[in-house]
Amino acid sequence: MKYQNHPYTYVGNVHLLVKDLHRSMTFYKEVIGFTILEQTEKKAALSADGKTVLLTIEQPEVIIEKQPRTTGLYHFALLLPTRADLGNVLLHLLQSGYPLQGASNHGVSEAIYLGDPDGNGIEIYADTPEEEWIWQDNHVQMITESMDAEGVLASRISDTWNGLPVGTVMGHIHLHVSDLVKAEEFYIKVLGFDVVLRYGAQALFISTGNYHHHIGLNTWAGVGAPAPTKNSLGLKTFTLHYPAIETLQTALANLKELGAYLTEDNGSYITQDPSGNVIRLYV
């Protein structure tokens, strides 16, 4: 996908902690359509193309139920190559009987929403044609209307379900944060993103290269919401891929100047935002 590739900074692997690895693997294979790329007794790496890890699920030795009204994952979003692929996924989900949480037209995209067995939010979406996105003063217009489900279903070119299409990528991630001002300063001034939409005083959408959003940030869990306890169900880390060593080095220098937590780990760098969301930084 154009905006989930060089020369943009974009979201890669999302790493979740789950209560029951076998249950989650069954869900992500049979309902969502991932393939298992790697598997151990307590961890599995999931892929759409058999090469790229988009989602890692892990069952810790001790797992803690996620407390309500904490920071962390709102949803991760899988971007499909075409509207026809979205129609295929929608038909499969309807036939599976798995409960959906919603289906929306956002102007820039059409999206299906559901939750995994641990309550982790999932969006599966397809972008509308880029030339139809409406921009004003470097801000994109996004709406929330009911999705034309019949139109999406009619767009499919096959009734056969073969799992997620090979071109599926991690389109974006949406996070609960405790303070939107601090989050904006961190992701914009430190990590190098741009604001593309302000949703009142409670949500912010940011990206690189004028994508409609690579990251969503909101305070819907409450201003001042605490970070979840370690080993709580939900988000463990997510990855940001930088397009060049120079852009990554700029972000690392900004993190050091800020005095933010930063450590190197096997070729990547680990930091966390002001709300405790842990991020891996790669080139």
UniProtKB/TrEMBL annotation:
Domain of life, source organism: Bacteria
Residues spanning the signal sequence: none
PROSITE patterns noted in UniProt: GLYOXALASE_I_1, VOC
Keyword terms, alphabetized: Metal-binding
Residue ranges annotated for the VOC domain, each copy included: 10-127, 169-283
Molecular function as annotated in GO: lactoylglutathione lyase activity; metal ion binding
Record has Glycoprotein as a keyword: no
Name of the protein described by the UniProt record: VOC family protein
Organism, as annotated: Peribacillus psychrosaccharolyticus (Bacillus psychrosaccharolyticus)
